[in-house]
Structures are given as C-alpha cells and as structure tokens.
Amino acid sequence: MWGIVPAAGRGTRIQPLAFSKELLPVGSRLDHGIERPCAVSEYLVDRMIAGGADKICFVIAPGKSDILQYYGGAYGDASVAYVVQPSPAGLCDALFRATPLIGPDESVLVGLPDTVWMPQDGFAALPDDRLAFLLFPVERPEYFDAVVTDDAGRVLTVEVKAPAPRTHWIWGGFKMPGRILHELKALFEARDGRDEYFGTLVNAWIAEGGMAVGVRAGTSYVDVGTLNGYRAALGLLAETAANGPANGLAGSRVALGWPTGRPFAGLPLTPNSPE
Q1: How much is the pLDDT for 17?
Q2: Residue 164, domain CATH
C-alpha cells in the first residue's frame, strides 16, 4: 500500500521559516527512549503506516531537498520514494505526479503533511474498494473542503471552501484503489488540468457516475499551517498524551506535545540521527 504525501507547497501562511514547512517541529517523539523533536509531517506518515502503508511517496518541489535529507530512503518499516512537482499547481497535480509508481491493484492513502489529527488509526476505518474520505468535525468548515453525504455515507458533493457549507464534516485524508487514482488522473487531464482542488475533481467524477463514501471516524483535526493552528496542535498533543493509551496513540512514535514556552529554533534532527 502506498501513502502519497503532497509536500510541494510554499507554506506562505507560516513563513518565514528556514526549512520546509513539513519539517516544522511540533511536539516530540521517543527515539530509542530519547525524546526528540517531531516534524509535523511525521504525524501523517505514522498514521499512514498505522493504516497499512508500506511505501511512502513524497511529492516535493525542486527546492525542498531538506525533506529528502530528513527522511532518506525509509521511515520505520516503510520505504520512501520522491517525485517532483516542478511548480505549485495544486493538490490534484501533485497527487498525479505519483501515478507512475502506483499500480491499479495497489491501495493508496492520501493526507496533508501540515495537519495533526486523531485517532492515529483513522485510515483503518476506510474501505479498500472505493474512494473513501476520512471525515472530521470542525467548527469552521468554510476554511476546508466540507463533504456532504447521504444517510448511507455516500458522498453527494464536496463543498470547497464554501462560505456557508451544509455540513461541518470535512475530509482530512482519503483512501482509494490505484485504478481509481488513474481514473481521476485521466479525468483531470480531460478537463485540461484546471482542477486545483481535489474536491472539484471529485464532484466532476461523481457527475460522470463515480461513487465515493465519507466515513465519520475522525475526532480531532488541526491545520498547523498558521500560528494559531500551531498552538492548537500543541494543545491537542498535550491533551492526547494526558489521556493515556485510550486516545489511540498506543505504539506511536509520538510522545508529548511541547509546552508553548519551549520553542525549537533550528532545523529538526533527522529521524535516525545519533546526535
């Protein structure tokens, strides 16, 4: 199973940084019993591995070699590969850069590397045989892609950053068979690559007979792309750690959220660094 991590964005909302936003230290992890800084993208990769991924593909911009340096060729038991998105052309374009690596019979997980969400095993709630969105309840769904479903969970439409969405459930990740990924790529190309957001492409796919489901298995979701989101993520991690194993983090590399008075001023250490 593949996990695709779109990491080519500029991260303008939280600049200036001296490194890629996906390496922003958020909380900490235990490395052979030693507490070390944890890059925000590690939370997504951990969740993908918990969901069954054994191969991770980072989609990076040409100038983001620090992500390659950080993750190298493996993370835990998962192999790591990289593809390049030459310019920031949106999420759809980023995802489809990975299609040459993915066969039609392989499963694919997708998430956003500047988010922290619970539960850690959320991807495991998604079915294998269709496009399935992992949904989270949020207070301000207008800032995200709200997913409207019927009573059976079938997706009716995705409202992309709508001013007044009909639901407070947003997608925070999704899963699909490789054949559907390739179908979506073909539709994206037939539409002249005009879909910047995944939701608009899915709406067009549904209009042509495609079927997707939304699974309301998410409990907490934080976008770490702003300073307020960064602070909220620290609070979520601290609360989760305080609640103990019942929070779904049993076996996770993640340890504790840092208190706000403990900043980290440099580039994060690599996961396997002995220093």
Answers
A1: 61
A2: 3.90.550.10
